[in-house]
Amino acid sequence: MPAIEQNDQVMVRSRVVPTDPTTVFALLRNPRQHQYTEPGDWVRDAIDPQPLKEVDQVFGMNMAFPGSGQPYVMHNRVTRFELDQSIEWEPGQLNEAGEFERGGWFWRYDLAPVAEGTEVTLTYDWTATPQAFRDEVGGLPAFGPEFLDASLAALEKALESEA
């Protein structure tokens, strides 16, 4: 799988977790576990608890704006699914007809077996986000690379609690 390089619109961070790629992938493909892979209280719980299994699958998550706690719903479409290797989704919204409309950013996890367990590489890419949306939310990214580091630490903690 090709590596994604970090630039002014892409953040990439990695961490080695002491478990195998199959276990890591099982947690990432389970929307019910996503709230435990985020370091804050942004992701709340899954609307669609079915495991992710294919590209173009859409799943909904209950979310809350940081600071205010104002709830909202985010739908996500799986855009990459390589069992035990890579999973990616693009957040967006369902329009009035129930069709998915992408927001222009994506989250991707790449997994590589290493002697100590699995190297997990988390990518946040907002390259395709429309300028109007960027202006509406006060610019992107809404956080720095330390958020991705904390997300990977939360993922490791979630994996430990499942063991």
From TrEMBL:
Domain of life: Bacteria
Protein name (Swiss-Prot/TrEMBL): Polyketide cyclase/dehydrase/lipid transport protein
Species this chain originates from: Naumannella halotolerans
